[in-house]
Amino acid sequence: MPALSRYLQQLPIWLCLASGLAQADLNIQVNDADSLATAGTAIADPMMTFYQQNQTEGIPGKLTDTWYIAGSMFMTLIQFWQASGVDTYNSVVSHDLMFQAGENYDFFSANYSQWLGNDDQMFWGLAAITASEAGLPERDGKPSWTSLARAVFNMQVNRWDNETCNGGMRWQVWPYQAGYTMKNAISNGGLFELSARLARFTKNETYAEWAEKIWDWSSTTPLLNTNLTIWNIADSTSNEADCKDAGNNQWTYNYGTYLSGAAFMYNYTNGSAVWEERVSRLLDSTFAKFFPTQFSSTNYGNGSVLSEVACEPILSCDRNQLCFKGYVAMWLAFTAILVPSKRDLIAPKLAGSVEAIGLQCSGTADGMSNLCGVRWYQPSWDGSLGLEVQMSALGGVTSQLMLLASQSPQTIDTNPNATEHHIDTSADEKNPSESKPITTADRAGAWILTIMLGSGAIGCVGWLIKTQ
């Protein structure tokens, strides 16, 4: 089966290690920025090959059978550029990110909106605010990156659901979608993170108020259980059970969104003790759950290597889950930068992970080198390949670059070109399953059509009379 056909399947592909020749590892020096930048480029090159191969009909930013993953890839590439200075991919990222903003610049194009979830749109909003924080140049004649992030925020808070569970974001947007009756951690945690980052970047208190609101609501549900010694973030809860039940799968990115958002709120509030405590408790949970000392007989580097423990040990991660660790690594780096008291705790975890990535990204197959696997802790390529595992590894390398540079994300003070302005999203907020309301123009058209049909019928009768 050709490589492209294998990749197009939803589930990850596992190759027989014997079928590919393993090459030397990336020889990463974890405290050397040049070494990390070189390694990041080596990982990104095959990732972009996968990207080009799997664009749907060549549409910029639209991957086969998914939409949001390209947005999160752009988010990762922007952060890599900011931390490394490598601008090789900037023109593609800038063009394709703006292209997918759609006809109304709100990342809710009519081409996809009928089947999108809130979490899908949210990731594009995070990519846009990352562009503002990193200083990605604005595009001439287009809205600012901040304005795109704001448009996503405005659409999402308009969907805040007070009819069930006293609030919260549903997983899906439209009532006809499976999952509409669920509220999940990534939709709520993702909007929390987006709100916190917009608050810090723009210094607009409205965003901070929403961040507080989302946190407070989440903590009344299993989605953010703060009543335990080790805080727990459930993946989902249901409206039918008044958000008291829990789908308790443990995923890194759920913890990462709440942790990153809390770190941005800590910085925005100039060191609030409340937010520092929240960062501390979430960091403890993240370390306890996703940096295991060992699993079965496999050594995890004494708790220094990030792992997607719910699926990684048995190689069952789907294409979404393959991406999660890369996001979380970068969000851990943000936390270390924005909450300096946590830096010494986070630094060994990121260094251990990136050192492991250097060994894992040693695969060669189908004419490509530096292929990365999902099991970072495994000291040689585990045989997986695809855009998602490359992106995750790039996020890991980028996190260490961010830590070395220790550069705070920009704000409107340092990036004044990224000022926000209003984008009208009303055209994209209509339920596609609802009948279009009848307008005056519709009625006039119907009346004209009736007259025409009536006149035609009379003419036909006259013709029949004449021919008799």
UniProtKB/TrEMBL annotation:
Keyword tags: Glycoprotein, Glycosidase, Hydrolase, Membrane, Signal, Transmembrane, Transmembrane helix
GO biological process entries: carbohydrate catabolic process; fungal-type cell wall biogenesis
Extent of the signal sequence: 1-24
Membrane-spanning intervals of the chain: 444-465
Biased composition (Basic and acidic residues): 419-433
UniProt keyword Transmembrane present: yes
Gene Ontology molecular function terms on file: mannan endo-1,6-alpha-mannosidase activity
Enzyme Commission number(s) from the entry: 3.2.1.101
Domain of life of the source: Eukaryota
Catalytic activity: Random hydrolysis of (1->6)-alpha-D-mannosidic linkages in unbranched (1->6)-mannans
InterPro entries per record: 6-hairpin_glycosidase_sf, Glyco_hydro_76, Mannan-1_6-alpha_mannosidase
Residues covered by region (Disordered): 411-439
Location of this chain's protein in the cell: Endomembrane system
Entry similarity comment: Belongs to the glycosyl hydrolase 76 family.
UniProt cross-references to PANTHER family, sorted A to Z: MANNAN ENDO-1,6-ALPHA-MANNOSIDASE, MANNAN ENDO-1,6-ALPHA-MANNOSIDASE DCW1
Entry protein name: Mannan endo-1,6-alpha-mannosidase
Originating organism: Aspergillus aculeatus (strain ATCC 16872 / CBS 172.66 / WB 5094)
Taxonomic lineage from the root: Eukaryota, Fungi, Dikarya, Ascomycota, Pezizomycotina
